[in-house]
Backbone:
């Protein structure tokens, strides 16, 4: 079996995002009750309902595919084709009425992401990346920034709280080399990078449901994405992610990280 993606699978992926968007809209800004998971992160009824709906669609449409969700674990996660879903990326944003929450949908083949969707329901924006194809933003091809100068770059992360002490020192060192840095966009920052509006996203403490969907989107738009050591992001990666608009920026940031000695 090859990793070539059937057009029908792409349409199913889009329909998953449509379903997630519809459910998210149903609860957004209605102050759904927030529960704490074992790891302390928040979850709402919207997270759970989206994941259950998408899991059921895949179970019925592709019974031989696996499904791995942030909220309720996995079905057949050893399958050659595996869907990895974050039903609401940015639950804190969702729960506090911010429009920058999203849904992340990835399809992996033999643990490597080959399709990814970043969907922003409250903003009506969607990025679709498919291995071997150009990334699309709302149906139109998009491209990362051509800026190759670190001192003219914009650096993003969701929150300083995602870094441990060593990672924060490294992020701060990179931040001191760029034009300015920003926080708070959740997965939206990666979509903005794919469309050329920001240059670097550097994050840590991510789950596989947070980063896998990003890979086809960023690479199909002309960008680079890896862990902090420059290795490709796969199902087994450790949770550090670096996305850059182009190879020149990516190489320069990786060089800085190496000099800082981050493990």
Residues:
């Amino acid at each position: 079996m090859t990793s070539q993606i059937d057009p029908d699978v792409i349409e199913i992926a889009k329909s998953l995002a449509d379903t997630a968007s519809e459910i998210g809209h149903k609860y957004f800004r209605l102050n759904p009750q927030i529960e704490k998971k074992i790891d302390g992160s928040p979850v709402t009824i919207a997270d759970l309902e989206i994941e259950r709906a998408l899991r059921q669609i895949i179970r019925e449409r592709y019974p031989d595919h696996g499904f791995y969700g942030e909220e309720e674990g996995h079905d057949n996660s050893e399958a050659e084709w595996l869907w990895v879903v974050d039903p609401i990326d940015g639950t804190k944003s969702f729960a506090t009425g911010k429009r920058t929450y999203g849904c992340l949908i990835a399809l992996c083949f033999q643990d490597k992401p080959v399709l990814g969707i970043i969907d922003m329901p409250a903003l009506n924006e969607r990025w679709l990346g498919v291995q071997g194809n150009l990334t699309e933003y709302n149906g139109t091809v998009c491209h990362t920034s051509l800026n190759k100068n670190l001192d003219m770059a914009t650096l993003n992360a969701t929150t300083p709280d995602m870094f441990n002490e060593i990672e924060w020192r490294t992020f701060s060192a990179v931040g001191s080399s760029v034009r300015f840095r920003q926080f708070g966009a959740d997965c939206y920052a990666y979509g903005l990078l794919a469309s050329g509006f920001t240059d670097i996203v550097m994050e840590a403490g991510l789950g596989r449901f947070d980063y896998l969907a990003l890979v086809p989107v960023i690479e199909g738009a002309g960008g680079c994405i890896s862990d902090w050591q420059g290795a490709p992001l796969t199902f087994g990666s450790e949770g550090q992610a670096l996305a850059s608009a182009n190879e020149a920026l990516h190489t320069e940031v990786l060089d800085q990280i190496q000099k800082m000695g981050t493990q």
Q: What stands out?
A: The mean pLDDT is 93.
